Amino acid sequence: MLTFIWHQLLGRFRGVFWQKNLVMTILTAMMYTYLVVMIVLLGFFADKLIAAILPGTDVVAFATISLFYYFLFDLIVRFLFQKTSGITVQHYALLPIPKSTLLHFPLIVSAMSLFNVVPIIVFTSFLFKEVIHSASWYFALSWWLVMLLMTYVNNYLNLSLRYTFRRKPVLVLLLLGLPLGLLIAEVAGLTAGAGTWQQLVYAIGYYPALLLVPFLLLVAAYFLGYRVMKAHYYDDGAGARSTKLAAEEKEGFWSFLHRFGTVGRMIEVEVKLIFRNTRPKVQFYMSAGMIAYLCFMVLGVGYSDLSVEELNDKNLQLLGFSIFTSSSIMLIYGQFLFAWESSYFDGVLAHNIASKDIITAKYWLLTGMCVLSSLIFLPAFFIYPLIVPYALSATIFNLGFSSFLLILTGTFNTSRIEANKSPFMNYQGTNLMQFLMVFLIICIPLGIYWPFVEAGLSDWGLIVLAGIGVLSLLLRNQIIKLFIRLLNLRKYKMARGFRKF
Amino acid sequence: MITLHQISKKYDQQVVLDVPALEIASGDCIGLVGNNGAGKTTMLSVILDLIKSNTGVAKLRGVEVHRSSEWKQYTGAYLDENFLITHLTPWEYLSFVGSLHGMQPAAVKQFIDSCAGFFEEGLFKRRKYIRDLSTGNKNKVGILSALLQKPELLILDEPFASLDPTSQAWLKKRLIELKGQKVTMILSSHDLNHVTEVSSRVILLEDGQVSKDLPTTQDTLAELENYFMV
Predict the structure, then answer these.
(1) Average of per-residue pLDDT values in chain A
(2) Boundary residue ending a domain (B150, B167, B187)
(3) A227 plus A279 within the same structural domain
(4) What φ, ψ does residue B36 adopt, rounded to 5°?
(5) Which of A142, A148, A223, A250 is deepest in the core (most CB within 10 A)?
(6) Shared domain check, B126 and B176
(7) Is A49 on the interface with B (CB under 8 A)?
(8) How many alpha carbons lie under 13 Å from residue A167 in its C-beta half-sphere?
(9) Choosing among B46, B85, B97, B148, which should be mutated to test the A contact, i.e. which has the most A CBs within 10 A?
C-alpha cells in the first residue's frame, strides 16, 4: 500500500508540467503558497466574519450549526467535482496483488484529496483560534475530531453515491434538493436539523466516548464505498453513458445546430467536448458558479451598504467586475482555445473543414458563452440597477473585442491538453500566455475607460467601450479573414505541439 | 495527382525527409515501406499539409497543398489516433465526417451497413465513446472515416496494424476494389505481404530518402524481404 501511495506521489511530481517550465513551476508554487495562507487565514478569522454577520452570537455554536449545511452541500460539490483515483488501479491489475489491496488503495489515497485537506486546514485554524478558548481542551479536541470524521464520511459516501446516481440520474435531483429543502424548512421553523446536529456535537464534546458514533459512521461509509467499488470492479461506466447518448440521439438534440452547416457541426463537436470531458466540464460549471459567487460577494456584500454617490465613485471597480463576470465562462474556456482539441487537431486540419469555418465556429461558441455569462449575471440588474450600464458596456465590448482577443491568443497555444483529466492541480497546457490573456482582457478595457473617469466623463467611457465592441462586430468578417491567415500560418506549430507521439 | 518537388524536412538539424522529386499519377496505388523513423509518416503528413516542409512544395492536382484546401474535398485520410474525435461515439464521428462532404445520415448508415464485415456488430450499436474502444476498433473507425466519402485520393498510414485477420482480409479486398476503380492510394505498412498484394508500385524510404521506387511484380516481395533482412 505504501508503494502505491509513493507511486501516486511520484506521478504527481514527475508530471510533464513540472519538468517543462521552471518559471511556471515557481509561479504555481507561489500561487499554492498564497492559497494555503488564505485558507489558514479563513479559519483563523472565521470568528471575525461570524461576528460581523451576527454580532453578539456564540461563534462556536453558530459555526457548528453552519457546518451541518456545509457537510450537506459539501456532498453535492464532491459529487459534481471529486473524482476517485480508481483509474490508477488498472496499471496494477495484472500484477500478483490481491484484489482487496487494489480496492483499498483508491479509498485510502482519496483521503489526501484537496476536498478533505482544505476543510481540515480551516477547521484546525478555527480550533486554535476560537474553539480551544471557548471550552475545555477535550471539548475542543472532540469538536475537531467530529469535523474531521464527518469530512471523511462525506469523502467515502461520495464514492457510493457516484455509482448509485450514475445508474439513476433522476435521484440527483433529490441530492441537490435535499440540503436546500432542509435549509428552507429550518428557516421557516418547520425542522431543527442543524440545531439537533449542534446538540449532538456538543454532547460528544462533553462526553468524548460518544466519538464512537461518528467513528462508526466513518467505518460504515468506508466499507460501503469498498463494497460498491468491488461490485463495480469491471464496470467501465458505458451502461449509464449509453442511456444518456441514446436520449441525445433520439430527440434530435443537435438538429438546431446542423442547419448552420459545418460551422454548426464544429460547434456541436466542441460543446460535446466541454460536457464529455472532465476538465472543460468542471471549469465550465466553476466559471458559471463564480459569476453567481462574485455577484453575491461584490454586489451583495461589498457594495450593499454604499450610497449611490459612493457607488458612482467606484467606476473602475464596477467596470472591472462587469468585464470579468460577463466574460467569465468565455475567458476560462477560451484561454485554452484550440488546445482543447489537441487530441484531434490533425483531424481538424486534414478533414474537409475550411479554416474559415474553424474560426467562425470558435467565434460563435465564444459569443454564446459571453451571452450565457451575461444571462447568469442578469438577476443582479434588478437588485442593483446601477450596474446595468457597466454590464451592458462590458458585454458588448466582450462580444466584439474580447472574443477576438481570445481567438488571437488561442492560436499561440501549442501545449497539448488531455481534456478528460481532472482540472484540480492540473496545469497541463498552462503557460504565461494564459496569464497574459486574462491580464489583457481585464486591463485593456480598464485602460481605455480610465482616462474618461479621470476627466469626469465616465458615461462617455462606457459608450466608447460599447462602441469598440459594436465596431468589432461590424468588422467581424474582415477580422475573421485576418484570423484565417493567422491560423494558416500558426497551424503547423500548433499541430506539432498538440500531437501525441 | 501528387507531386513532391525538392521536399526536405529537418528537426533539430536532423534531416527526416529528403525527396528531390516524386510523382504519383492518378490511379496509382503506392505501397510506402520503410523501417521505423524512415520518414513515411512525415511524407504523408507533408502531403496532407499537417507539416510544413523546410524546402520544396507538395502539390495535389497541380495546386500547392498549403495554398488551397480544395484537395480536402476529394481526399480521405487516416494516419493515427490524432485524427479521431475521441469524445464522440463511432456513429457520431462518421456522421460528422460524412456531413463535411454533404452526406446525409441515411447515406452514412448505408455506408456503415455496406462495411459490416469489417467490424464487429456492437461497434456502432454500443454507443461507447471512441476513447473507450480498443486500439483495433479505433483504427477501424479511422479507416472507415477515410473510406466514407468515396475519396479520389486515399491515404492510410499502417492501416493493417492492430486489425484482426478477418478485418485485414476485408480491408485488403476493399483496397484492391478501389485500385480497380482507379482511386489513387498511398498505403504505408510494415506488412510486406499486404503491400505487395495491394499496391501497384512500391516506394521504399530509408533515412528520409527514396531508396527504391519500383512497380510491383511477382519478385517484389522477395526483393523487399531481402532488403530488410538483417
Answers:
(1) 80
(2) B150
(3) no
(4) -60, 135
(5) A142
(6) no
(7) no
(8) 8
(9) B85
